[in-house]
Amino acid sequence: MRVATIDLGTNTFNLLIAEVVSDNDYNILFENKLPSKIGKGGINNNTLLPEAIERGLSVLKIHKNTIEKYNVEKTVCIATSAIRNATNGNEFALEVKKHLGFNLNIISGIKEAKMIFDGIKQVVPIGSDKVMILDIGGGSNEFIIANKDGIIWKHSFELGMARLLDRFNPSNPIIKDEIDTVENYLRNELYLLFEVLKQHEVTTLIGSSGAFDTIAGMLALHKSPNILMSKIVTYKIDYNDFIQLHIKLLNSTIEQRLKMERMESFRVEMIVLASIFINFIVRECQIINIWQCSFSLKEGAIYQIMKGELN
Predict the structure, then answer these.
(1) Mapping DSSP to helix (H, G, I), strand (E, B) and coil, where does residue 81 land?
(2) How many structural domains is the chain composed of?
């Protein structure tokens, strides 16, 4: 059976098409991510602006055309932070149904975290030691503490990069006072995470998709330029290498970032805040090992479809 999942994120709508070959296995046939910026301009007011809705519908139309070419039998659409928190999120869902025929599953942050974990565990061998998984989204960030026995703790924080960008509107390039303001805000908002970590020793961070993919790709370009990032699912990020890139991003303008190799154009506005977020977590949580994983929510959705947990 051919299935498709669409992850309707705050910044991008991500499509995955797969051939399910058994209850435990599938082959990826096609994947693509397109910028929708569905939360732009209205995310901190809990609304989807008319132009954002139009962008979202246009991107979904492109994905639908692709799905039809692959003769997909089942399509599942997962809507996350920007749509679930918008007062007109259900209206957007009705528009999607009316114009494209897709039913939107608007899921909670906790369900989102579980789906992310179900994606990552397929390709990352998590052992008895506890690890922390982080998915940096446009609207929310999901933190999961887990080991080989499963999820120990999970939480979704409404601290996505589109929210931070809209709230702080940093200079171009960002200045030190703005970095300090962002970090102080994160320190207060992530109080629950820091309290939980007092009970759980975690030294490994697994970064799920999104900004981690971009950062890993940029770092790999200099360390292993012949590696095709599209062919690997995990990449070990050396912290010293990351810090060099982090400083470069902090000192760059949007125009300069647009010219950086392997920088996705739709990430140029938010990648600086994402880098600040990652560095803050690594430093404050005393992380030693950092891994990127390209599997995330959309692969987790395929897993849950195979297991009969998602219709």
Answers:
(1) helix
(2) 2
